[in-house]
């Protein structure tokens, strides 16, 4: 394992864009570890007054430099203050409370700091390894020998994340396009009526929510809603709700009269 | 002291095209051209021995490691199981079907904005989607849905285990802390102005 | 009479990912598994000699030809892509996922103390982690784990070869190696005057 020196620990954008050099920390835990190490104090016996003061000074400095202060830093600030005020409380005198043998209010924080330091070290040892594409190289292309032979069958290799990303891209594109050009006529109420009816076909009921996919463009949602209203008006569906806050169900209103509802409609 | 023969061997190994002496010399400009040529010669001899599975051939455009012809039949077996990557259009189409099934070709094409006939055929052949039936609307278009093989490919228990788009969007958006209430920052003493 | 060592060498050479013994045996099903293992051993020895520009490493549960570390500087001139570099946040997140998988985003964020949505998306896109499914707890959060590409990137034979996490006793001498007892966290006494 070579080459551990090749690290670029603080390469986040923030670090370069300000003239005043302010060390960048990965988060409040990182900052706290830094302060503990800098003050050479015992992590199992953190002097909260010193550490809290310096922690808050750091945040103040970020503020003065107009750095965006991530919410986590503020949460930790309040946690520190809370812990500090807890340690200031007098130990309860009565025996009942004493028996409970309360944990040091700092204990949870110490556990988190130690745990975080463990993974910080693990991250460091990862970059110290022989990294593919930095310290060692492999043939990352299809050898000409193989390329010349056409595969006969093609198993597929794909990750779930790629599938979802693909869908997200489609939807991003669609809502943009429909916003600009496609317009309301692309999905007519009549189309949605037919679709709802075919969804209902052979079923006793359909969850109202199922008609409204989570992410779809506004026109689609409006058309769907109007289609349901229209179907109610035509007495082709019933909209029911089991109780006041329960789910809304759609049921075919005509159970008799055989034959497809959709045929009757179209 | 760098080992020139080893360096040339490494370079030829990772290069995806034949490498000329000239190009080698450009990359290794601190070395002598004659020494580089000698290194190539030594490598050719080493890889020229009988029974090697890799040989160093000199083609018109330079030097390249190749496999010997007598092993070609075995390599052909690799191509039979070589996993192919999905094209973006196949992925998009598959994703639309997964999330919108039952769905017609027209609906897919509306969402993608392009013809999908070819892609549909491909993923039908791979058995990742199937024809569920015909939609009872004028024209009676075919409707598509995903198959058991689809679930297996993505190690999904059922369709409900597909992550929702919201879960995926949340990944790129910020931060749970934004949902958080006012911070209890009033403290007794003098640090207050720091905040 | 086919030369098994030569065939294995050819296969490892053209394969674009580490090749497991199992896969080799599937491809070469007319050969004995023991013989294939022997061939691998002979190749490892051959490529393990000093001054070779190609070495045979065990990575991601398989075997792969790679270049030795000492030639990295020269190879960097060749590759158009800049060497991989990871931000501290990506590395920490990867480390947590590697050691604690399957793990949810909330668990990672608790451990790091910061939001990790953006980082997770980046390393998902780089295929270093993958979605393993959903955790069977309220809210059904997604769970993450590392991929074969993760092992390849950090030259790890498998997840078991990750170095053991070091327990920290004292920050000033970061990382003492020995395993540590229970944390002495209950100390009711006299810290109070420090405040």
From TrEMBL, chain A:
<protein>
    <recommendedName>
        <fullName>Segregation and condensation protein A</fullName>
    </recommendedName>
</protein>
<dbReference type="GO" id="GO:0005737">
    <property type="term" value="C:cytoplasm"/>
</dbReference>
<comment type="similarity">
    <text>Belongs to the ScpA family.</text>
</comment>
<dbReference type="GO" id="GO:0051301">
    <property type="term" value="P:cell division"/>
</dbReference>
<dbReference type="Pfam" id="PF02616">
    <property type="entry name" value="SMC_ScpA"/>
</dbReference>
<keyword id="KW-0963">Cytoplasm</keyword>
<keyword id="KW-0132">Cell division</keyword>
<keyword id="KW-0159">Chromosome partition</keyword>
<dbReference type="InterPro" id="IPR023093">
    <property type="entry name" value="ScpA-like_C"/>
</dbReference>
<dbReference type="GO" id="GO:0007059">
    <property type="term" value="P:chromosome segregation"/>
</dbReference>
<dbReference type="GO" id="GO:0006260">
    <property type="term" value="P:DNA replication"/>
</dbReference>
<comment type="function">
    <text>Participates in chromosomal partition during cell division. May act via the formation of a condensin-like complex containing Smc and ScpB that pull DNA away from mid-cell into both cell halves.</text>
</comment>
<comment type="subunit">
    <text>Component of a cohesin-like complex composed of ScpA, ScpB and the Smc homodimer, in which ScpA and ScpB bind to the head domain of Smc. The presence of the three proteins is required for the association of the complex with DNA.</text>
</comment>
<keyword id="KW-0131">Cell cycle</keyword>
<dbReference type="InterPro" id="IPR003768">
    <property type="entry name" value="ScpA"/>
</dbReference>
From TrEMBL, chains B, C:
<dbReference type="GO" id="GO:0051304">
    <property type="term" value="P:chromosome separation"/>
</dbReference>
<dbReference type="InterPro" id="IPR036388">
    <property type="entry name" value="WH-like_DNA-bd_sf"/>
</dbReference>
<dbReference type="InterPro" id="IPR036390">
    <property type="entry name" value="WH_DNA-bd_sf"/>
</dbReference>
<dbReference type="GO" id="GO:0051301">
    <property type="term" value="P:cell division"/>
</dbReference>
<dbReference type="InterPro" id="IPR005234">
    <property type="entry name" value="ScpB_csome_segregation"/>
</dbReference>
<keyword id="KW-0132">Cell division</keyword>
<feature type="compositionally biased region" description="Acidic residues">
    <location>
        <begin position="179"/>
        <end position="195"/>
    </location>
</feature>
<keyword id="KW-0131">Cell cycle</keyword>
<keyword id="KW-0159">Chromosome partition</keyword>
<dbReference type="Pfam" id="PF04079">
    <property type="entry name" value="SMC_ScpB"/>
</dbReference>
<protein>
    <submittedName>
        <fullName>Segregation and condensation protein B</fullName>
    </submittedName>
</protein>
<keyword id="KW-0963">Cytoplasm</keyword>
<feature type="region of interest" description="Disordered">
    <location>
        <begin position="176"/>
        <end position="195"/>
    </location>
</feature>
């Amino acid at each position: 394992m070579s080459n551990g020196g090749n690290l670029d620990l603080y390469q986040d954008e923030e670090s370069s864009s300000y003239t005043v050099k302010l060390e960048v920390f990965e988060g409040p835990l990182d900052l706290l570890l830094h302060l503990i190490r800098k003050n050479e104090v015992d992590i199992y016996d953190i002097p909260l007054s010193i550490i809290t003061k310096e922690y808050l000074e750091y945040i103040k400095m970020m503020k003065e430099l107009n750095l965006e202060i991530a919410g986590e830093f503020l949460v930790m600030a309040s946690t520190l203050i809370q812990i500090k005020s807890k340690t200031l409380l007098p130990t309860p005198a009565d025996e009942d409370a004493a028996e409970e043998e309360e944990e040091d209010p700092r204990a949870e924080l110490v556990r988190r700091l130690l745990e975080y330091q463990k993974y910080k070290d693990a991250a460091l040892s990862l970059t110290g390894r022989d990294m593919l594409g930095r310290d060692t190289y492999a043939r990352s292309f299809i050898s000409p020998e193989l390329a010349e032979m056409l595969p006969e069958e093609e198993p597929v290799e794909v990750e779930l994340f790629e599938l979802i990303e693909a869908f997200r891209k489609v939807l991003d594109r669609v809502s943009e396009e429909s916003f600009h050009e496609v317009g309301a006529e692309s999905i007519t109420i009549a189309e949605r009526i037919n679709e709802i009816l075919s969804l209902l076909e052979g079923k006793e009921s359909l969850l109202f929510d199922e008609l409204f996919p989570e992410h779809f463009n506004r026109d689609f949602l409006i058309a769907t809603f109007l289609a349901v209203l229209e179907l109610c008006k035509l007495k082709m569906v019933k909209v029911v709700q089991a109780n006041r806050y329960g789910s809304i169900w759609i049921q075919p209103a005509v159970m008799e009269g055989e034959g497809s509802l959709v045929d009757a409609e179209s | 002291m760098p080992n020139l023969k080893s360096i040339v061997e490494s370079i030829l190994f990772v290069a995806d095209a034949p490498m000329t002496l000239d190009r080698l010399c450009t990359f290794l400009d601190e070395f002598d051209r004659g020494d580089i040529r000698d290194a190539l010669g030594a490598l050719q001899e080493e890889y020229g021995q009988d029974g090697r599975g890799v040989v160093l051939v000199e083609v018109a455009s330079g030097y390249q490691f190749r496999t010997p012809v007598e092993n070609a039949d075995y390599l052909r077996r690799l191509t039979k199981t070589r996993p192919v990557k999905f094209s973006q259009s196949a992925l998009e189409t598959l994703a639309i079907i997964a999330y919108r099934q039952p769905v017609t070709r027209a609906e897919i094409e509306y969402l993608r904005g392009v013809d999908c006939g070819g892609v549909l055929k491909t993923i039908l052949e791979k058995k990742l989607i199937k024809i569920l039936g015909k939609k009872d609307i004028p024209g009676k278009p075919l409707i598509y849905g995903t198959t058991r093989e689809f679930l297996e490919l993505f190690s999904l228990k059922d369709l409900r285990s597909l992550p929702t788009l919201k879960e995926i969007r949340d990944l790129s958006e910020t931060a749970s802390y934004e949902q958080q209430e006012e911070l209890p920052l009033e403290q007794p003493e003098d640090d207050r102005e720091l905040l």
